[in-house]
Each structure stands twice: as C-alpha cells, then as structure tokens.
Amino acid sequence: MIKRGLLIILILLISGCSYGSEKTTQGAGNTITIANFVFEPSELTITKGTAVTWKHNDNTAHTIVSQGLFESKVMNKGDEFSFTFDKVGEYDYHCSIHPSMKGKVIVQ
Ligand SMILES: [Cu+2]
User: Fold this and answer.
1) How far is the CA of 94 from the centre of ligand 1 (A)?
2) pLDDT top residue among 8 and 35
3) Residue 2 Cα, ligand 1 centroid: separation in angstroms?
4) Contact 85, 52 (CB under 8 A)
5) Which of 41, 61, 100, 107 has the fewest CB atoms within 10 Å distance of its CB?
C-alpha cells in the first residue's frame, strides 16, 4: 500500500515537472520591452531557433538594429518587432536614434 502510494506521488511529481518546464520554454522569456529609453531585459538568453519579440511601450520612437543581422523600422508605442535567432552566438543591438540604448541577445 505504501509503495503504491509513493509510486503515484512520484508519477505526479514527474509529470508535473515536465509539464512545468514545457510551459516555461514556450511562454514568456523571449519578449523584450522598450520603455523609458531602456531595453528590458537588456540581456536575454535564449535557445537557437527562438523568435524574440520587442514590444515598444515608450512615448519616444526607437529602432532596433543589430549590425548585419536585422534592422527594424522606426517604432512607436504599441509596435512590435520580431526576429528569429537561428545561430548560436552573442548579438549586440542598439537603437539607431539613441546610440546609448543597447541590448544583447545570447543564443545557446
Ligand atoms: Cu531610441
């Protein structure tokens, strides 16, 4: 009786864990918000093949430029920009209007 109970608890724990991690990889964690002249988070680590979405939530127009990789249009509040990172590496990007605005995406 006790053994069977333990087994059921173990199965519940294992299935609960795998369900949890699945949610994490598919859910949040690949969105960067632009607000108050800051990319948040300024450094984001993702796995290869993940699409990152920048959400503009500032009263000032901004762009997202990674030299030789991508360049967004001039974005205003409510705009979004997405890019899928297919290669492992570290990618610096910045706002071409405000060069002090910088961020980094680390692809593993
Ligand atoms: Cu800017």
Assistant:
1) 8
2) 35
3) 62
4) yes
5) 100
Residue with tokens 């918000």: 33
Helical residues (DSSP H) of the chain, grouped into ranges: 2-26
Q: Whole-angstrom Cα distance, residue 50 to residue 47? A: 6
Q: Which of 18, 45, 8 is nearest to 30 (CA)?
A: 45
Query: Does 1 score more than 80 pLDDT?
Result: no
Do residues 85 and 107 make contact, with C-beta atoms less than 8 angstroms apart?
yes
Distance 61 CA to ligand 1 centre (A): 6
Give the span between the Cα atoms of 65 and 93, in whole angstroms.
Answer: 5
pTM of the predicted model as reported, rounded to 2 decimal places = 0.74
Burial of 58 (0-12, 13-18, 19+ CB in 10 A): middle
Return the bridge partners of 106, or none: 45, 90
Contacts of 65 (CB under 8 A, 6+ apart): 71, 72, 93, 94, 95, 96
